[in-house]
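Supplementary Text 2. Reproducibility record for the structural model of the 166-residue chain.

All settings were left at their defaults, and a single model was retained for analysis rather than an ensemble. We include the record here because the model underlies the residue-level annotations in Supplementary Table 4.
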Amino acid sequence: MSKEIDEYKKKAEQGDAEAQCSLGDCYRLGQGVEQDYSEAFKWYQLSAEQGDSDAQFCLGVMYQNGIEIDRSLELAVDWYRKSAEQGNADAQCCLGACYCLGDGVEQDDFMAFRWYQLSAEREILSLNVLWGIVIVWVMVWNRIIPRPSNGISYQLNKEIRMLNFV
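Retained model, structure tokens:
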């Protein structure tokens, strides 16, 4: 283990939420330690419970994709929401995707747009992408085109959720 990892671990064990999240990142990515998603989850959980929005987002991704834990869309939404409400743009984007698809929440185009818009304002989605989403929703709403199948939408939103995660 490197000196930096030792420092993270020492601070994390003392309850430092930022160090816990950073240590979770190290285990998730295998940086300075052997990759271990169970350890990553443990440190993210400790950090998230203290209110760290990055750790909350990472738990959302782990729950949504069933990484080393049972998949739970409802828990994913809960963690995304906690993070998104603190202004985490990645979580806002993922929460928008959950509302868009009805993953863990009732499908709601308005809420999807709201969270995508907040994310776009933080420059996670470009405004061009946001306008593309708006145009598609208007066309679906007016029944000009059918609602995209979950398979196509799911794959697109899965790629958005995994952005910068794995």
